[in-house]
Amino acid sequence: MHPAIRPVALRLLGAVLVIWGAATAAFGVLQLIPGDPVNAIVGTHALVGPEQRAHLRAEYGLDDPPFAQYLDHMGRLATGRLGDSYQLQQPVWSVITDQVGPTVELALWAMLSAVVLAVAVTLVTSGRARWPRRISSLLELVIVSTPPFWLGILLLTVFSFHLGWFPVADTGDPRSLVLPVVTLALPIAAVLTQVLREGLLTALEAPFVLTARARGSAEHSVRARHALRHASLPALTLAGWFVGTLLGGAVIVETVFARSGIGRVTLQAVADRDLPVVQGVVALSAVVFVAVSALLDVLYSVVDPRLRRRTGMAAA
Amino acid sequence: MTATTGAGGAPELLSSPAAPPEPPEALEPAALVEVDGLDVRFGSGPGQVYAVRDASLTLTAGRCLALVGESGSGKSALARALLGLAGPTATVTARRLRIHGEDALAFRPRDWLKVRGRRIGLVSQDALVALDPLRPIGREVAEPILAHRLLPRRAVEPAVHALLERVGIPDPAERAHSYVHQLSGGLRQRALIASALAAGPRVLLADEPTTALDASVQARVLDLLGQLRADGTGLLLISHDLGVVEALADQVAVMREGVIVETGPAAEVLSRPRHPYTIALLDAVPGRRRRLPVAGADTATAATAAGTADRSAAPDDRSTASGATLEAPPLLTVAGATKRFRGSRGNRRTAVDDVSFTLRAGETLGLVGESGSGKSTLAGLLLGLIDADGGEILLAGQPWSGLPERERRARRHLLQLVPQDPLSAFDPRWTVARVIGEALRTAGVERRDRHAHALTLLEQVGLSSVHLDRRPLALSGGQRQRVAIARALATRPRLLVCDEPVSALDVSVQAQVLALFRELTSSLGLATLFISHDLAVVREICSRVLVMKDGAIVETGPVEQVFADPRHPHTRELLAAVPGEIGRAYRARFEAGHHQRPPETGQPFFQQPSI
Asked: What percent helix, strand, coil does chain B show, rounded to 5?
């Protein structure tokens, strides 16, 4: 095999394993949740008799032993057929593509704001003076320990109901994005700031920083050109993880701010045991995680040139 | 800029940042940095600690002042104070501190920015960490030029190439894009020097500039520094290595606990030291040592240790020991050991190439070679941490290499490693008692007996019960290495593999740890493989030596014979590169073109080590 193909092949194999594992776990968990999927299929039409229910059950293969159902699901997943939603009576694929847009928009804005905020706060609070760091640390702690739904409600109460600056619900107005983004971004920014500042303070102790200072570089240049890059490596890992969780984490924000999106679809699907939709969302999350981790690997090697020649390094 | 900062001296705009401006007075060498009564204190109130106390020195164009002393003696704190970089917790005061004629005591932070890199450059130890590993060296070298806005942007790149060329980096245009980890130790250090020179300072502070380097690379870097001095740069050389000092310094200042205890012309201080501390420091230099201090706590200074050194290992000790070992069966037999690694482009690199030797109980075998010659890989093979691709290793007459780990485990205790840097080989949160306790547990010592055992081991290595509750960071370098030895001894090994065990230590501490090694190997009958790039140390402690180059053993024999009459050109090269007296003797001989033993007597401070 060509040496360049090997890492790519390994990564693809890993991606398949991750998606398979996630789909299996989702299937298992849904089996444990009490409730009858037929209810989801028939919806609120309660006038469905037992015979029809039995018929539906057989049609969807719900009478089969769990393992046979599992194989059936996996088979369909492997061939890319996500099936139809039990409840919405439309293909899972179109359910997801309809709803994923607002969530992705929300997640990307939240991530971008969190990173910008974290870098800015880090640079401002890592100076010689101790008090900005103490105040910032305290604030970060408060934000991290605040439940997101409560934070969302708090923001809504203050900025929408009292001040009326932002709409209460999604109106299509770009301003309606602000509060949800802030709700999602603040906790992420708080955690990233802590990691970044820790890394920055460690990096500022490094010998190359003394060298840089001895060259006559000003303090801000030492921080921005040398230390921040070193500090960003651990923060990058964390940021990647956050991107993955934003997809699922959006559910609370979408509920509080009455936004449509993948989170609410998922919540509904889980409640109704709408297995095809749940499986679809799980597969999507797994794909996102795999893609993000691949992207991170590329970013690592951009930030840290020492990682660029990882293949075949001698142990010596 | 205000009057206090003294804009004077600034008008000379550089055509090239690499070329130092002409000295204002060409007749008399100008005093570039004048220091009088400098104090550097850390902390405040009653807990205040003096790192430097009442230090006075002058740096002159074209001269080299060496600041000598052990780690913690305040050398680096003094150097940083000259850059205004003593740190936020430091208080710097002085009767007089003038840099290029300006009063540095009145400097504000932004005045210091103008001094750093432009008036005074800094070259630190170990370019691998002193240059930013995430930036190409070209950008690192360019930084001072940009920070001081010396050149328009488009002129920076050619200037960087010229600087890299000046410090002897081949292919500067291409190398400028390399990262630190892609360069060899020597090239890295040159790049660091280039970055210190970039803004054209006339004073260079070289803080242990060659400490992490192989002897031959060190020699070349010293040549470069010597060249800079000849070109008119004033050098402050900070070093604990008196060989380096001897090679470069015009003046020497000996520092101890923050105080300069002796100062004078280099030749005089090194040949007729007056202060007892200088004498002790000189005595502790391997190869120059008259007698070894007793293995004892290294809290005692070298001076007192040397004073009570009557019990020190006599020359006969080793010869009888090595004589006795000849009859002993080999403890370790290595036959044709080979290890290859796959290189970065799929090509295979032979790290250990058909190596064969034997090691007997009570014998100390030296393994010397430059970094990258395969010494550590060979150690890994012996320890069974790396699987050999070929050849056989027998431990106590039984197969060792190629066995599954399960079968090796029962005999692992026979063979222990003493690492170079115990600080990174210990868990920093573990106390000494726990570190040794863990080793005793694997050796099968019952929990209730471990404390007593640990205490015995500590006493064996010259420590006491007070050290049991300390954590690695609270120990000195020498104490740490003693704990590492105690840990290795906990399993009652018969063979120690020591990978550069004393190269991170100050000379006087080094002498004490070496004495401990000697005492332990003779009293316990241990076989020792002593890996070192320091030939003087090997010469002092080993009975036989293996010289390694590119994975292969190129020369082997009794230490005395190999050092007196090296056969292989590489061995001669290694010997000639040793700075100071030993190297000088060899260099002189090679220049003379015939081989004779180095002079045995007649020189006041070079004594033939008793072998």
From this structure: 40, 20, 40
Flag whether residue A172 sits within 8 Å of chain B, measured between CB atoms: no
**Of residues A215, A216, A316, nearest to B351 (C-beta):** A316
Disruptive mutation site among A211, A230, A236 for chain B (greatest number of B CBs within 10 Å): A211
Q: Which residue of A has its CA nearest to B349?
A: A314
B256 shares its domain with B343: no
Is B333 a domain residue? Answer: yes
Q: Give domain limits for chain A.
A: 5-78, 96-271
- Minimal Cα–Cα distance from A223 to chain B, Å? 12
CATH superfamily label, A96-271 = MetI-like (1.10.3720.10)
Q: What is the pLDDT of residues A121-150, one digit of tens each?
A: 998 888 777 888 888 889 988 988 888 888
Asked whether the beta carbons of residue B114 and residue A207 sit closer than 8 angstroms, the reply is no
- CATH number at B179 reads 3.40.50.300
Supply the pTM of this predicted model.
0.71
Of B114, B136, B376, nearest to A216 by CB-CB distance is B114
Decide if A284 contacts A100 (C-beta within 8 A): yes
Is it the case that residue A116 has pLDDT exceeding 90? yes
Confidence (pLDDT) at A240: 85
In a domain, B357, yes or no: yes
Considering the domain architecture, whether residues B230 and B369 belong to the same structural domain is answered as no
Query: CA dist B191 to B67, B124, B128, B156, B560, Å?
Result: 23, 12, 10, 16, 38
- Residue B605, domain member (yes or no): no
Is A307 part of the contact surface with chain B (CB cutoff 8 Å)? Answer: no
Which chain A residues are closer than 8 Å to B117 by Cβ?
214-217
Asked if A303 lies within 8 A of B349 by C-beta distance, the reply is no
Complex confidence, ipTM: 0.75
Interface touch A3/B346, C-beta < 8 Å: yes
B250 and B392 together in one domain: no
pLDDT value of position B167? 86
Nearest residue on chain A to B373, judged by CA atoms? A316
- pLDDT of res. B539: 86
Contact B143 A212 (CB under 8 A): yes
* Domain contains B19: no
Measured between beta carbons, which residues in chain B are less than 8 angstroms from residue A221? 147
Q: Which residues of A touch B133 (CB under 8 A)?
A: 208, 304-306
Residue-range definition of the domain harbouring residue B323 = 311-592
Q: Do A216 and B386 touch (CB under 8 A)?
A: no
Domain count, chain B: 2
- Low-confidence spans in chain B with pLDDT less than 50: 1-27, 289-325, 593-611
Span B237-277, pLDDT tens digits: 998 888 888 888 999 999 988 899 999 999 898 888 899 88
Exposure string of B357-370, with b = 16+ CB inside 10 Å and e = fewer, is bbbbbbbbbbbbbb
User: Looking at beta carbons, which residues of chain B come within 8 Å of A315?
Assistant: 341, 377, 380, 386
Residues B236 and B359 both lie in one domain: no
Among chain A residues, the shortest Cα distance to B345 is held by A312
Nearest Cα of chain A lies from the Cα of B43 at a distance, in angstroms, of 15
- What pLDDT digit, counting tens, does each position of B406-465 carry? 888 888 889 999 988 777 888 888 899 999 999 999 888 888 889 999 999 998 888 888
pLDDT tens-digit readout, B28-51: 567 899 999 999 988 877 778 888
